[in-house]
Amino acid sequence: MLGGDGGDTVVAAAVTINRPVAELYRYWRDFTNLDSFMDNIVSITPLGGDRTHWVVRAPAGRTVEWDARIIEDRENELIAWEAEDGADVPNAGRVEFRDAGARGTVVTAQIAYDPPAGLVGRIIAKMFQREPAIQARRDLRRFKQLMETGEIATASRTRAALEEEWA
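Below the sequence we write its predicted structure tokens.
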């Protein structure tokens, strides 16, 4: 998917969502919707055509940015993208939508990325729970909740609220 130098990490996750393929594809295809269920997205700005600018939370309070372009788009079937040259974290991915009959739609996300600092970068990201394998599973679960119920379940008392209480 990326440069093929062997340093790439590939992450995949899937979920079955009880909604029609076309509805899920349309929602995901509007990249400005992704921050509604992807925890690490700060912003996605359309640049025109099939290009977007992404700002994403990284470990240790940092953010990373890149411009991406859609490289394949088959309506109600798949969306594939890749970061353009100069990305803070080179990455590429695809999301597939497959009809599951009465069960709804199977949504599969696959992401390849080349983390800064290689293995060390992956370990640090994992410690801060920002590692893409962890995030992909969480984001797909939140997408399922949002699409099936119209909201994402959260704990009644967030960590920030608890810290505020004890301050």
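Confidence is low (pLDDT under 50) at residues 1-6.
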